[in-house]
Amino acid sequence: MISFAGKVKSELCRVGLNRQCCARAEGYGVLLYGNTFTATEVRIITENSDFAARLPKLFQKAFGVKFDRMPEDRSGRGKLIFGITAPEKLEKIINILGYDARQLTALHVNFGLLEEDCCRTAFLRGAFLAGGSVTDPEKRYHLELATNHMPASREVQVLMEEMGFLPRTIRRGADALLYFKQSEHIEDFLTKIGAPAAAMDIMTAKVDKEIRNGANRAMNCDMANVNKTLDAAQEQVGAIEKLRHSARWEKLPEKLRQTAALRLEHPELSLVQLAEKCDPPVTKSCMNHRMRKLMEEAKEL
Q: Once rounded to an integer, what is the mean pLDDT over residues 97-117?
């Protein structure tokens, strides 16, 4: 069964590759957040078949290169590995991104490639496709972008803040993470990079949770009230039984004895329900007054 993160990535892969500048920005995000990007190798590993189908078209549009290594079956399960090792292809990619081979040991973001809003959006889409994950909103809210290029991660954080996003940061082993834990921030981010349907799924899941939580709170409140009623009724029954076995019982007014008999007959009912069974019916306030008098009489024994 495909995960929620897999559904998000499949939705992102339906975004068209129209402008070369945006394709380059998306490819740039893929390289910075993929598995390996050095002067001697590019390696991208994915388990998403839609992303696997998009990668060759993306790199052809962005850099005019083909992968040296591609998985034979891109529709199956498991890890799908793409690689480039040909020196001339790597040099072409490095030059297009504005680097030289010596800079790849500590990659910084070339903001010159990300001046337009559409290119920034495409860059973040590529970063998520290669190094992003998002948790099923039915469980919890968490989205992250992970890369082993520390300087680049700090600069991507600045880029996201300029775009109105406020990610948190953390280190996990060799990776630097940018992440969100609030559903609204995740919804906004996914909508921006091209996954509005996934953002809507998160909103729907949140509403469903709130409805369930509200129903649970109401049920818990009802149960607490029921228990409180039963505890009070049990106490009243005990007091009435004491009175029945005492000389005071015959001296009680008829209305109090009628109330006592009703309580013994219906120990599970609330005072409102008991008041309705009186002949003639009385108010809750009246029933409460009578019951309090019975409790006082029992207390004096």
A: 85
pLDDT (0 to 100) of residue 83: 97
Please check whether residue 165 is in contact with residue 189, taking contact to mean a CB–CB distance below 8 angstroms. yes
In this prediction, residues 88-111 reach a mean pLDDT of: 87
Provide mean pLDDT across the span 89-117: 88
Q: Is the bond into 280 cis (omega within 30 degrees of 0)? A: yes
Looking at residue 76, its pLDDT comes to 59
Strand partners, 43: 36, 83
Would you give the end-to-end CA distance of the chain in angstroms?
A: 71
Please state, in angstroms and rounded to a whole number, the distance separating the CA atoms of residues 178 and 152.
11
Instruction: For tokens 């007959």, name the residue.
Output: 265
Mean pLDDT of 97-109: 80
Judge whether residue 198 has pLDDT over 70.
Answer: yes
Q: Can you read off the two tokens belonging to residue 2?
A: 């495909």
Count the neighbouring beta carbons within 10 Å of the beta carbon of residue 215. Answer: 10
d(CA 7, CA 95): 34
pLDDT for the residue numbered 74: 60
Cβ–Cβ < 8 Å for 237, 296: no
Q: What is the mean pLDDT of residues 21-26?
A: 97
**Quick one: tokens of 228?**
């409180």
Lookup result for tokens 């993160």: 5
Give 183-190 contacts, CB < 8 A, sequence gap 24+. 183/137, 183/141, 185/143, 186/134, 186/141, 186/142, 186/143, 188/164, 189/124, 189/143, 189/165, 190/8, 190/134, 190/143
Distance CA 126, CA 46 (A): 13
Distances (CA, A) of 300 to 203, 248, 254: 61, 10, 19
- Rounded to two decimals, what is the model's pTM? 0.71
Q: Which residue has the tokens 């390996």?
A: 36
Structure tokens, 61: 């549009």
